[in-house]
Amino acid sequence: EKLIHFGAIPITLSDSSGHIYEDEGIDASKLSIIKQIKAERGARIGRYIMASTTAKYSDPENILEIPCDLLFPCCVGSNKIDADDVNMLADAGCMGVIEGGNMPSTPEACAIYKKRGMLYGPYKATMAAGSIVNGTEMEVNPIDSTDELDERLGESVDAVYDKITKTATEFNARGDLVAGTNIASFLKVANVMMAHG
User: Other CB atoms closer than 10 Å to residue 27's CB: what's the count?
Assistant: First the structure.
């Protein structure tokens, strides 16, 4: 929904059974149908092809073979995207990968993102704002509306990005979000350990 809200045109969605591909894109009305299908108990994303005359199901078999500008992998499980996948994406014109799942890229894939000049949003940074909606935080600071949620997530994402970019610059890795994320994370843990003796 947020990608569509910001003007992006998603072309694929997947679940553990496979993926759907809409060559002309998935707009809000198509997404609404997909959400209805997925809300049904046990429904898999493949059922969407019965509601669309243009969708393809798991064709091509590898979702990463579908040309895209940006990839947002939200897969369950780690190390699903390897160096060969990244080269295939870059060769097809993909400009960047923004991770929305827990460690979808192998360390080798991460190195290729940088080598190929691709934008890369590592999961450690992109998922940091999610702490706003965890159970404990919601008890302490309840959110009353989606507008308030969007505002707080936006503020958190901005703060995380600011911290990462400033840290990367400070440690002579300007523009490297991976280095900025890793260094900022390390410093946060080290400072807490130092404070506790």
Answer: 12
DSSP tag of 101? S
Helix (H/G/I), strand (E/B), else coil: 13: strand
Neighbours of 161 (CB within 10 A): 17
What is the reported pTM?
Answer: 0.86
Q: Tens digit of pLDDT for each residue in 7-28?
A: 999 999 999 889 999 999 999 9
Does the structure show a pLDDT above 70 at 132? no
Measured distance CA(177)–CA(186) in Å, rounded: 14
Strand 56-57 to 70-71 pairing: unpaired
DSSP state of 82: -
Beta carbons of 57 and 18 less than 8 angstroms apart = yes
CA triplet 160, 166, 168: central angle to 5 degrees? 100
Burial classification of residue 195, based on how many CB atoms lie within 10 Å of its CB (0-12 exposed, 13-18 middle, 19 or more buried): exposed
What's the pLDDT tens digit per position in 52-94? Answer: 999 999 999 999 999 999 999 987 678 889 999 999 999 999 9
Name which of 70, 48, 65, 66 is nearest 57 in CA terms.
Answer: 48
